[in-house]
């Protein structure tokens, strides 16, 4: 059975060109909620989909999945929503009255995408230093969410263009341009996490080197080609930080074992240095 006839703007191939498209919806079912679209965010996932970059697409495709609308019809078994309610989709959620519907729309995907991985840092008892890589739609919301959680936020961007926006409008604490070697070097090993929102292939080594040992690189951006990295930096950062522990006998104190006797580090009580074995202190260097 047929329902309402509606109009959207559809992509019909990978070109990115949109044109009007008319479709007849199914007849409203008992559990359906029909809404009139008031606002719709368009994020990079819509672009990936229109271009067929992340999965095979059955065209025509009407992009836009951060939708806020007003309920105009409900099925016979729906009792959670009534006519006139403001709701958002993917799954239907009520939009609180205090939240402007146009501001709610991007929260439904970009906001959730940023918040979901950052939730793990909720109520952290230590000061968290955050990096947000890419200041697009997800990046904007990630800065706001991380700031609201009390993190010290560094925006890592591909150019200077968004510096004022990041520091003055979004109140980020620091701004790095990824192509500026001196700035990147100055921020080495300083971040607890980086939320990577870049929607394209990109090298990872420059960003890994910004992380503290044990820091997290969190991906939400979709690369159309596999991402890979050279693991030298990972090993070196971890080794450098652990070296002090093992050399100053923190390991011995914690674990009660003198691994110096294995010949790996040298004799107990020896003064260690970095010369890699010429005086017999190291039998095996890092
Ligand atoms: N995992 C999920 O559930 C989920 C949900 C929503 C979105 N996403 C994905 O998240 C990604 C970002 O979406 P978005 O809507 O925020 O995209 P967007 O608005 O296009 O922003 C992406 C930002 O990344 C930076 N960037 C773009 N190309 C780059 C490149 N080649 N190298 C380095 N940086 C680059 C730019 O920031 P700067 O100018 O600051 O460099 C750009 O503004 C997309 O891949 C999207 O599909 C995932």
From TrEMBL:
InterPro entries: ADH-like_C (IPR013149), ADH-like_N (IPR013154), ADH_Zn_CS (IPR002328), CAD-like (IPR047109), ER (IPR020843), GroES-like_sf (IPR011032), NAD(P)-bd_dom_sf (IPR036291)
Protein's UniProt keywords contain Oxidoreductase: yes
Chain ranges of the Enoyl reductase (ER) domain: 16-264
PROSITE patterns: ADH_ZINC (PS00059)
Cofactor entry: Zn(2+)
SUPFAM superfamilies listed in its UniProt record: GroES-like, NAD(P)-binding Rossmann-fold domains
Top-rank taxon: Eukaryota
A Pfam family recorded for this sequence: ADH_N
Alphabetical UniProt keywords: Metal-binding, Oxidoreductase, Zinc
GO biological process, one term: lignin biosynthetic process
Gene Ontology terms for molecular function: oxidoreductase activity, acting on the CH-OH group of donors, NAD or NADP as acceptor; zinc ion binding
Keyword Acetylation: no
PANTHER family: ALDEHYDE REDUCTASE
Assembly and binders: Homodimer.
UniProt family annotation: Belongs to the zinc-containing alcohol dehydrogenase family.
Name listed for the protein in its UniProt record: Enoyl reductase (ER) domain-containing protein
Organism this protein belongs to: Gossypium anomalum
């Amino acid at each position: 059975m047929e329902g309402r006839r509606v109009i959207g703007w559809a992509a019909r191939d990978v070109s990115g060109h949109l044109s009007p498209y008319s479709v007849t919806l199914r007849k409203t079912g008992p559990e359906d909620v029909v809404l009139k679209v008031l606002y719709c965010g368009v994020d990079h996932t819509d672009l990936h989909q229109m271009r067929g970059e992340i999965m095979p697409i059955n065209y025509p495709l009407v992009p836009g999945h951060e939708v806020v609308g007003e309920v105009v019809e409900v099925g016979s078994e729906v009792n959670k929503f009534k006519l006139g309610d403001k709701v958002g989709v993917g799954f239907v959620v009520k939009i609180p009255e205090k939240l402007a519907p146009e501001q709610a729309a991007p929260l439904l995907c970009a906001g959730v995408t940023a918040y979901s991985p950052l939730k793990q840092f909720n109520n952290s008892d230590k000061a968290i230093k955050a990096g947000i890589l890419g200041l697009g739609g997800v990046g904007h919301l990630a800065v706001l969410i991380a700031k609201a959680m009390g993190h010290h936020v560094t925006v890592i961007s591909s150019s200077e263009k968004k510096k004022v926006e990041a520091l003055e409008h979004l109140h980020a604490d620091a701004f790095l341009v990824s192509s500026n070697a001196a700035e990147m070097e100055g921020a080495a090993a300083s971040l607890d996490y980086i939320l990577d929102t870049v929607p394209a292939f990109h090298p990872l080594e420059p960003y890994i080197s910004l992380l503290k040992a044990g820091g997290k690189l969190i991906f939400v951006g979709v690369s159309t080609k596999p991402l890979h990295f050279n693991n030298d930096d990972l090993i070196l950062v971890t080794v450098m930080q652990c070296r002090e522990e093992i050399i100053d006998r923190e390991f011995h104190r914690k674990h009660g074992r003198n691994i110096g006797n294995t010949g790996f580090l040298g004799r107990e009580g020896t003064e260690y240095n970095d010369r890699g074995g010429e005086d017999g202190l190291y039998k095996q260097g890092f």
